[in-house]
Amino acid sequence: MSIDTDTARRVAHLARIAVKEEDLPDLAKELSGILSFMEQLNEVDVEGVEPMTSVTPMRLKRRADGVTDGDMQVKILSNAPDAREGFFAVPKVVE
Amino acid sequence: MTLSKLTIAAARDALRKGDMTATDLTEACLKEAGDAKALNAFVHDTPEQAREQAKAADARLARGDAPAMCGIPLGIKDLFCTKSVGSQAASNILSGFRPEYESTVTQNLWDAGAVMLGKLNMDEFAMGSSNETSAYGNVVNPWRRAGDDTPLTPGGSSGGSSAAVAADLCLAATGTDTGGSIRQPAAFTGIVGLKPTYGRCSRWGVVAFASSLDQAGPMTKTVRDAAIMLEAMAGYDPKDSTSAEIPVPDFEAMLTGDIRGSKIGIPREYRMDGMPGEIETLWARGAEMLRDAGAEIVDISLPHTKYALPAYYVIAPAEASSNLARYDGVRYGHRAKLAQGDGIVQMYEKTRAEGFGPEVQRRVMIGTYVLSAGFYDAYYNRARKVRALIKKDFDDVFATGVDAILTPATPSAAFGLGEMAEADPVQMYLNDVFTVTVNLAGLPGISVPAGQDDRGLPLGLQLIGRPWEEGALLNTADVLERAAGFVSKPGKWW
To answer: How far is CA B57 from the centre of its chain?
Structure first.
C-alpha cells in the first residue's frame, strides 16, 4: 500500500501536525517505506487467531466508582501555557 | 578509587559498616557528573535534592534502619515524572514542564532511601535506538573504538542512563524499555540492563509511549545490583491498573550461582543473515558457559520471530499516536505562537509541529494511519493477531520445560553517531530485532555484557525468562556474567 500526497496531507491533519505543502511528497515516500515493511504481516496465517488485548492473562482491577482525589486547581493549572481565572485558556473555539 | 565506581552491593556494605557516608558517596558522584558534560548524559541536575536525600540517608543508616538502596546515588531517565524537577521526555513539547507529582517507581526508590543526582538524557519520548532524537542533543558513549576518536552512540532510548552508568557518574540508573530501550543501550555500553515482566513495575507517572509494551527497569554495573534495585522499584500500585498484585521476592537471595539442571533454549530463528561473525561466536560461547555451569542447552524454535518487528512497528506507533494526543498546547509544555485569526485547530497543529521532532512526528502519523477507518483491520488488528502468535511461540517453548532463552542482545556493537543519518528509518528499527519479541510477549529480559568486538567495544548477550520469574532469570544471568568475566571499562577521555 503506498501513500500519495493527498493521503499524507489527510494523515497529518488527523494527527494534528502541521506539515508544509512542499514537505508532503517526502513524507508520503517515508510513510510508504515504513508501511511496505509492515506488509510482511500479510504472509502470516492469522485465521481464527484472536487479537491480543492483554499482555498478561489478568482481569483488570475494579474499584468503587467514587471520588478519590480533587481540590487541586492550582496544581493542575501550574504548568498551563495560558491559564486565566482558574481555567485553561485557548483561542476562540465558537464563532 | 573514586567512590562513584562502586557497585550498589559494595556501597551498601560500606555504608552499613560506616566506612563511608552517603554524603561522601553523593559528593563523589556529583563531581564525576559535573566533569562529564561532554557525554551530555545528565540534562537536569538536582545537586541540592541529592545532598538533602544523602543527609537523610545518613541519618537512617545511623539509626540502623537502612534498606539496601539507602544512600545509593542514582540517575533517573527523563521519562519519569519527578516532582518539581524538569521532566520532559527529551521533547520540546514538554519544555518547562515540572510535574506536581512523583512517579511510583521513583517514589519507591526515594522511600528506600536512594538519592537522585539528576535527570538523564534519552531519545524523544523513548522513540529511537541511538539517542539522536533527543531535544537535548546526542549523548556520547564513553566507549570508543580502539585508536579512533569517532563519537559513538550509547544506544537508545535509555542512552543517558547507559552512558552515565558505564562512565561511573552514578551507581545505577532507571531506564524504560518498550522495544529494547534498556537492553540495547546496556549492551552498547558494557553494563547490565533488565526489562522486568510487564506489570512488575508501575507505569504510573512514567510518560507513556506504548502502554501495552512500556516497562521500567534497572540499569546497573552488575547482575546483583539489578536484583537489588529491581526489588526497590517493583510492586503493586493501585494507580496502574496493569500493575500485578503479586509479591516481590528477595531477588538478591535468589542468586545462588547454581543453574544445574536448568534448560536453556537457543532459538534458531535468531540466527540472522549477515550477522557479524563475532556476535555469532559470542552467542556460541555464552551457550558453552551455561553448559559448563551445568545447564542443558537445547535448540528451540520461535517460528514467528521474523514478524515481531513489523508487528511492533504497527502496535507501538498506534498506541503512541493515542498517548501523544494529550500534547495539545493546552495543559502543559509548549504552545506555538499563533498568527492573527488562528483558531484552536491551528494552535494544535502548529504546537505539535514545533514541539515534536521528526521521528516522533513520523511515528504519530504512522500510528494515526494504521488506526484510521479502513486500515484498522488490515494493519492494527492483524498486528495484534500476530502478536498473539508471537506470545504463543514463547508459551509453547516454556511448556516444554525451557527455563530461559539465550540470544544476542543486539545485531552489532555501538555504531557512530550520525552514521545512520542517511539510512531509511527501517534500518534503525532493525536494532530492536532481538529485543522486541520480549516486549510483545510481556516477558522479562536481561542484557549481560559478555565480550568485546575486535575494536574493543562491548557486546551483550540477552537472556529471556518466564513471566514473573525474574529471580531465576537473574540467577542465570549472574552465572553468565561471572563466566564471561567482563571487567573492561572505557578509558576516560571526557
So the answer is: 26
Report the number of secondary-structure helices (H) and strands (E) in chain A: 3, 2
Alpha carbon A29 to its chain centroid, in Å, reads 21
* Domain chopping of chain A, boundaries: 5-42
Query: In which band, very low, low, confident or very high, does the pLDDT at B358 lie, cut at 50, 70 and 90?
Result: very high
- Residue B268 pLDDT exceeds 80: yes
Question: For residues B381 and B325, is the Cβ–Cβ distance under 8 A?
Answer: no
Question: Is B305 within a domain?
Answer: no
pLDDT number for residue A1: 61
Which residues between 376 and 405 in chain B have a beta carbon less than 8 angstroms from any beta carbon of chain A? 378-379, 381-389, 391
Q: Would residue B46 count as lying in a domain?
A: yes
Q: Is B392 known to be catalytic?
A: no
The number of distinct structural domains making up chain B is 1
Span B275-288, pLDDT tens digits: 889 999 999 999 99
Facing residue for A38 by CB, picked from B306, B313, B384: B313
| Averaged pLDDT score across all residues of chain B | 97
Confidence at B373, pLDDT banded by 50, 70, 90: confident
Following DSSP, what letter does each residue of B267-330 receive, concatenated?
EGGG--TT--HHHHHHHHHHHHHHHHTTPEEEEE--TTGGGHHHHHHHHHHHHHHHHGGG-SSS
Which residues in A lie closer than 8 A to residue B241 (C-beta atoms)?
A: 60-61
Q: Is residue B242 part of a domain?
A: yes
Q: Which residues of B touch A15 (CB under 8 A)?
A: 321, 352, 361, 364-365, 367-368
Which secondary-structure segment (H or E) carries B264?
A: strand B263-267
List, edge to edge, every strand of the sheet that includes B73-77. Answer: B42-45, B115-120, B73-77, B172-177, B215-220, B192-195, B445-452, B458-465, B404-408, B263-267, B296-300
A24, A13 Cβ separation under 8 angstroms: no
B157 catalytic? Reply is yes
Task: Provide the CATH number for the domain around residue B87.
Answer: 3.90.1300.10
Q: pLDDT digits over B112-158, tens only?
A: 999 999 999 999 999 999 999 999 999 999 999 999 999 999 999 99
Would residue B268 count as lying in a domain?
A: no
Contact B298, B402 (CB under 8 A): yes
| B181 is annotated as an active-site residue | yes
Rounded Cα distance, B122 and B77, in Å: 7
Beta-carbon separation of A31 and B362 below 8 A:
yes
d(CA A51, CA B367): 17
Q: Looking at this predicted complex, what is its ipTM?
A: 0.95
pTM of the entire predicted model: 0.97
Structural domain span for residue B159: 3-256
Q: Among the options B77, B119, B195, B263, which is catalytic?
A: B77
